[in-house]
Design a protein that fits this description.
Layout: H1 2-9, E1 11-14, H2 30-35, H3 37-43, E2 47-50, H4 78-90, E3 94-99, H5 109-116, E4 128-130, E5 152-154, E6 161-164, H6 179-194, E7 199-202, H7 234-248, E8 254-258, H8 264-267, E9 277-279, H9 295-305, E10 312-313, H10 334-347, E11 351-355, H11 376-387, H12 392-402, H13 441-445, H14 451-464, H15 466-470, E12 472-475, E13 482-489, E14 492-499, E15 505-506, H16 509-512, E16 517-522, E17 532-533, E18 538-543
Helix pairs in contact: 6-7, 10-14, 11-12
Bound molecules: 1-deoxynojirimycin.
1-deoxynojirimycin binds at residues 60, 63, 100, 167, 203-204, 258, 318-319.
Length: 544
């Protein structure tokens, strides 16, 4: 039931600090979100996922939680949160919180107590291990952090003792072998669900349980050393099954898993009795020296992950570059490209996820220097590469490539000063994208052909159509850069055609023969019978 709701209506991710600033401090907040609920409702959005809004030192922009039971004062108060719940309820919307429980902030009282007193029960909430070698001067194993460098930090004032951090040293990993950790997280989940939250997007949930602490196979820039010892372990599946059964299911909630490091053939296991849907990562990577994913790779990856019972389909989020430029070429056909990607999300089987600004075809920054960046990945990566004497141009390239600033630019609602994100004259926490004057909600509201108006139409189509939202998917033979598939429900059949490339393409004749068709949506105007496709052209046909 709940999975069906997600599949039909999709999810819209809000990155709170960059969505809408109501009080003029340059940072988005809960009152700002409330002020935009009618806008979101006008898009057809029914489920909001909020990136973390808990108190946090913001080392990793809130993915370092210092208190699971409160609201970060920068975003407002618990009363604001309760008002948000009330206002979303009135509009038939649901709210999903981010649950970050692979690690906490190093400011979390549990970790502070664990450091203050090695005999405290909180010591076992985390993963402490003695180092190796003389006086334990080497870390316990060779694992590296996803944020580069060793995954172990020596405990201040305890020579030879280390704690594990798969992310920054300010994000110590929790020890899920400890029953008290499960019970503590269970309380967190119950607390927010009692406040009316619909469910959770579970941060890097695939790595919470470490199976062994042996040295790992040598990794790479994108695959940390040691990951084979903690990705998708039996322990992780056990915990998820238990959480689902004991807490989520009785409350009719949902669990969405960020399955970092999980290969396609490991993913299905998460969807049986654990998660409603999940995010894989193959879709995010065009290759080390490629900015744009090749259409044939995009096709291959999409087809492969559609084999799951309920994939989380996404092109953007707060960790990724904008999809225009990444999956479609910037330039002459970028508007058609942006619409094609939106149509894909609305046509594929599974749950469509949209990120704030995707509905207007937002693009990456043209310039945001390392100095102006707030992203730890960019900073850590640059420092790490300096250690290897990597030349500056290559460092700059990699820092832009793996940096996570682009999607985090403040939302552009208007051309005027402050862009409708904040008040005029206020410095936003991170500078506006240079294109905000040109690509924004206000301008697109007035343009019938805009990406924004197309988004509305496309999402409505999915939501009102059982075949598109809940039907089976069947792929048809086609050019390697053209994606052709049917979505089929009991009494409906839709033919979905996507030219993933910027070249002219043909639809194989046989596909358009024999049946009567009517176009339900397309990003171009054309006749129903036309079997040639323009750059990035897509069509969804009703087939009888
Ligand atoms: C995934 C989140 O999306 C990312 O922003 C964060 O840095 C890591 N998990 C660590 O929590």
């Amino acid at each position: 039931m709940e999975r069906e709701f997600l599949c039909r209506y999709g999810v819209y991710q809000i990155y709170p600090i960059s969505f809408c600033d109501s009080d003029g401090d340059g940072k988005g907040d809960l009152a700002g979100i409330i002020g935009k609920l009618d806008y979101l409702a006008s898009l057809g959005i029914r489920t909001l996922w909020l990136s973390p809004i808990y108190p946090s030192p913001m080392w990793d922009m809130g993915y370092d939680i210092a208190d699971y039971f409160n609201i970060n004062p920068a975003f407002g108060t618990m009363a604001d949160f309760e008002r948000l719940m009330e206002e979303t309820r009135k509009r038939g919307m649901r709210v999903i919180m981010d649950l970050v429980v692979n690690h906490t902030s190093d400011r979390h009282p549990w970790f502070r107590k664990a450091l203050e007193d090695p005999n405290s029960p909180y010591r076992d909430y985390y993963i402490f291990r003695p180092g190796k070698g003389k006086d334990g001067r080497n870390p316990p194993n060779n694992w590296t952090s996803t944020f580069f460098g060793s995954a172990w930090k020596e405990v201040p004032n305890e020579k030879g003792m280390y704690y594990l951090h798969l992310y920054s040293e300010h994000q110590p990993d929790l020890n899920w072998e400890n029953e008290s950790v499960y019970q503590a997280v269970r309380k967190v989940v119950e607390y927010w669900m009692d406040k009316g939250v619909y469910g959770f997007r579970c941060d890097v949930i695939s790595e919470i349980c470490k199976e062994s602490f042996e040295d790992g196979k040598k990794g790479s820039l994108t695959k940390p050393t040691g990951h084979e010892h903690y990705i998708a372990t039996p322990g992780c599946h056990r915990i998820l099954k238990r959480l689902r059964k004991e807490v989520i299911e009785p409350r009719h909630g949902v669990l969405i898993g960020e399955c970092y490091g999980v290969e396609r053939d490991q993913a299905s296991a998460f969807l049986d009795e654990e998660l409603d849907t999940l995010f894989g990562f193959e879709i995010t990577d065009p290759g080390l020296f490629r900015k744009r994913m090749r259409p044939k790779d995009l096709k291959r990856i999409l087809v492969s992950w559609q084999g799951l019972s309920c994939n989380g389909n996404y092109f953007e989020n707060h960790d990724q570059h904008r999809s225009v430029g990444k999956y479609v070429q910037e330039g002459a056909f970028e508007k058609e490209g942006a619409k094609m990607l939106i149509t894909l999300l609305c046509a594929l089987k599974g749950v469509p996820f949209f990120f704030q600004g995707e509905e207007i075809g937002s693009k990456d920054y043209r310039s945001l220097s390392l100095k102006e960046s707030h992203d730890v990945v960019r900073k850590f990566l640059d420092a790490f590469l300096k250690g290897y004497h990597v030349p500056k141009p290559l460092r700059d390239y990699l820092s832009r490539k793996y940096g996570r600033d682009d999607a985090r630019a403040p939302m552009a609602f208007a051309s005027r000063e402050g862009h409708g994100f904040t008040k005029p004259n206020v410095q936003p926490w991170q500078k506006f994208n240079e294109l905000s004057d040109r690509i924004n909600v206000d301008i697109q509201e007035k343009d019938e052909t805009s990406v924004l108006n197309y988004f509305r139409e496309c999402l409505r189509l999915r939501q009102s159509d059982d075949a598109l939202s809940l039907g089976d998917i069947q792929f048809l033979e086609s050019d390697p850069e053209v994606l052709l598939f049917l979505r089929v429900s009991e009494d409906k059949k839709r033919l979905c055609v996507f030219n993933l490339s910027e070249k002219e393409k043909d639809i194989p004749k046989v596909v358009l023969e024999n049946e009567t068709r009517r176009i339900l949506i397309s990003n171009y105007w054309q006749s129903e019978k036309d079997d040639s496709l323009h750059p990035y052209e897509c069509r969804i046909y009703k087939v009888n």
